Amino acid sequence: MNWPRHTFDTLERGLAPLVARHPRMALPAASGLGALRNRLSHRWPSPEQIQTLFPQLAPRAAARVAWKIGALEARNRLLVEAIRRQGLEPVRRLMRPASEAFAALRPPLILGTFHVGAVQALGAAIERLPGPVLVLRLGALYSPSPPVEIVSTEGDDQRRALAFQRALAHLAGGGFVVLALDGSPGPGLRVPCLGRTLELARGPFALARLTGAPLVPLVARWRNSEVEAEVGAAIVGMEEGALAASAARWLEGYLMAAPEEIGLGLVRALLTPPLAAR
Amino acid sequence: MKTGAQIKDAVLDLLRSRAPLAGNGALPDDLRLGAGGLGLDSIAMVELLLDCERRFGISATGLLEGPVITVGRLIAHVRDAVPQ
Fold this sequence. Notes:
The structure holds 2 protein chains of 2 kinds. By secondary structure, chain A is an alpha/beta fold.
């Protein structure tokens, strides 16, 4: 079917100026557009891709999950646009109060994120942590305020090594380090997840090994037009492969309970075998 | 107290323990530690510098903030920092 891609793009762009002042109108509208876009295109992701990852789902249920992921992606695109325009302020207003588990987090601690749910909203969640926060990420969408600092992992091995060394020093100084477990450049560890192979970044697990700091999974999910942060149980150990396998098991359990939270990038990563495995 | 030659040999030993590509032959001074040289990834590079800090009781991770780290630069840094 020849579906009007540019029309959807234009409509989404039209919502961007509204999200800061009228989030309860703009975000559901984006979700509706994203879901409709997915229903018409049967792509990004397709119901078949969802069924490959979640074979327990019947075809109609898989299609519904695909629509919801289309909605999630559109909502997240809108959020990114809002952050680009106005920084984190619009996101702060969307955050639900911190859960007990989140409020109980204490440094030194490594918080490992996955590209699921409202991942871009995590910037507003980590501002609430009780201690200095160092974020390692590819580039920066916004300029953070203390106690949050962002170090980019862009660049060559030596640049990434410098970022890694800063994270080690930050943990040694009693801080929080936040970084993505999936979808990062640099060395990786392959682990089973949802019946496929997923490559996780090695850095977070090497940090845990070298410092002994626990690693806690951290994700954000949409609740209507609000966002809540969710943390997993601490993963502790000295062997990087075992730590990575534990993190992947946590992710698998999270997504089995809520498949509509999986991000499109993660769908693609799971369905595309790592280079050496092809 | 160590001589410059002893320091060089000790640094090369640490380097070889982290870099399988290093082999047992001579390593040119201008050989990079990372991609295009010994192939150390970011984590291995930091661990090598931490090895040097522990082994010689010096600070070495500051090298990451300067120009590209080569075999020669690392040896020179350690040699300059260790009392001889």
